[in-house]
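hey so u asked for the seq, here:
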Amino acid sequence: MRASASTADKKTIPIVASPGTGAMAPAAGAGEETVALYEAHTKIYPRSVSGYFSRWRWALVMLTQGVFYGLPWVEWGQRQAVLFDLEARRFYIFNLVLYPQDFVYLTGLLVISALSLFLFTAVAGRLWCGYACPQTVYTEIFLWLEKLAEGDRSARMRRDAGPWTLDKVWRKAAKQGLWIAVALWTGFTLVGYFTPIHRLGSELGAMSLGPWETFWVLFYGFATYGNAGYMREQVCKYMCPYARFQSAMFDKDTLIVTYDQARGEPRGARSKKADLSALALGACVDCSLCVQVCPTGIDIRKGLQYECIGCGACADVCDTVMDKMGYARGLVKYSTQNAMRLHWTPAQTLRHVLRPRVLVYTAILLAVVMAMLASLWVRAPFKVDVERDRGALARIVSGGRLENVYRLQIMNAQETPQTFALSAQGLPGLTVSTDASLEVGPTESRWIAVRVQLPYDEAVPGSHPIHFTVQSAPIAGVVTEKSVFIVPR
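ran it, structure tokens below
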């Protein structure tokens, strides 16, 4: 039997982990190897592009930011049109006044948002990411400001690679100033949805902004500055969970940005007048512009990748190149995997996009939207909460009647005063002994003590269900709330 080598005879080769390209390289010591566990980050310089999808993207940038920055300044009557007043526990959305008890509407809104995301993803992939996601929107804005201050892609790359000069310093400073101004204004606007923005502006002008307002303006401003200015594609690739679970909502009939490999390959450079059949080349000129315009730095010619946000920038720039070469457009385009494989026409592709899965998502989404709108339409103009006063026991009062005391909260959900009439039902002879009528001001919430009496011999000892009916005027509305009447032994 061959003797095994002892532990002391074995040679230990240490493995050193360091950033690199992923290849194994010799370390400083003899016999050592370096294994890169992480890919070194390379800064991406997206090239500016114009085209059909780029115009759509900028249209949505202007639409979303016009709503975001402008809505807090819109007046509705004598107040801000959209205000989430956390201190007063009231949400104002145009003519709606919502209380914490209306939390169900937030749930409905979240359900609608989730179903919309499922629907849009099943139809055309990451449309939200490519056109309306705040990360995409603010990255577009910050890239435009960067180009304004430092020039186009090639100029920025040369400047970053070169030494620090006066021109480089002032351009970098100008860019940082623009970024910080937009980020702080974004933070100020966000806080303006929770604190009346006119008051917030006055406090800012007087340098008397409260500590919480100051914190949130700076916090959200810093988040905007960091995410859109520096992290950019890192947020989409590593922080956003949507990139990880989007494949569960994709199938081979989902519209995605695709490269027509059958038409484009083999790729290669050529002159504009070259005969493709003689050169045995495809339509792709291998200019790499599709990579240069990609905000996440991927090569769409390698197929669908989770980093692709579906913005269509590569399709726009490829169409530009095809126009210059005199080739047909659509080498890179929105299509489906089945359409590319089976060479479907646009009409055939569209028919398969409207498949049962999409129709089911659409039907469910429409049903939820209609249910939510109907609920808002029939919503009572006020809300009532009833609590039995646990500090006051059931007792016998003058006239030999039993009395229970309750606390009623009446919340006026209208911006006009309302008068309310109270009554109680559920037991024979049950009456409200306090003033059964009261007035509540606009969007006001009032607690009142209500004494309810019952003839002594009308009910056996124990707990008996009753209900309060509250009627409003001049806006007609009726709300009924349950409670119990205690008859002592």
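Residues 382-487 form a domain with the Immunoglobulin-like fold (CATH 2.60.40.10). Confidence is low (pLDDT under 50) at residues 1-25.
lmk if thats what u needed
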